[in-house]
Amino acid sequence: MASSLFSYFVVAMVLLSIGLVGVFSRKNIFVIYMSIELMLSAVNLIFVALSNYYHSMASQIIAMMVIAIAAAEAALFLSLIVVLYRRKKTLDSDMYKALSQKETL
User: Fold this and answer.
1) Who's near 70: CB < 8 A, 6+ residues apart?
2) Which in 10, 48, 64, 83 has the greatest CB count within 10 A?
3) Mean pLDDT in the chain?
4) Distance (Å, whole) CA 96 – CA 29
5) Using H for helix, E for strand and C for coil, what is the string for the chain?
6) Are 75 and 38 in contact (CB under 8 A)?
7) Contact, 33 vs 85, CB < 8 A?
8) Could you report the per-residue pLDDT of 14-47, keeping only the tens digit for each?
9) What is the pLDDT of residue 105?
10) In 3D, which of 16, 58, 9 has the Cα closest to residue 38?
11) Residue 28 backbone phi and psi in degrees, to 5
12) What is the phi/psi pair of residue 27, to 5°?
């Protein structure tokens, strides 16, 4: 049983690493968002594996709460992506470095 728990941790760490590489190496805002979602999935995998290992429902409840929060975050983030794309006509994150500064017309 411990070897299967270790296997789940290895898969989760690989997913988390891929997500971190995606966040730090990509410029496209949508790809960054998908990398963040991949990292959330890795955390959920760890929660469910621990719940199965300890025969407890507490970690599964936490995983369900993370999924619910991720769904709400997805709606907000995707609407923000649409607004930013309509404003600048690009999803390159370098174009949004100075969001707080007013644009000159």
Assistant:
1) 37, 40
2) 48
3) 87
4) 10
5) CHHHHHHHHHHHHHHHHHHHHHHHHCCEHHHHHHHHHHHHHHHHHHHHHHHHHHCCCHHHHHHHHHHHHHHHHHHHHHHHHHHHHHHHCCCEHHHHCCCCCCCCC
6) no
7) no
8) 999 999 999 999 888 889 999 999 999 999 999 9
9) 47
10) 16
11) -75, 130
12) -105, -20
Cα(19)–Cα(21) distance, integer angstroms: 5
Is there a contact between 48 and 5 (Cβ–Cβ < 8 Å)?
A: no
- Kindly state the tokens that stand for 82: 């649409």
Give the whole-angstrom CA distance, residue 4 versus residue 34.
27
Domains with residue ranges and CATH for the chain:
2-95 (1.10.287.3510)
pLDDT (0 to 100) of residue 65: 93
Contacts for 38 with CB less than 8 Å, ≥ 6 apart: 15, 16, 18, 19, 22
Which residue do the tokens 């805002």 mark? 29
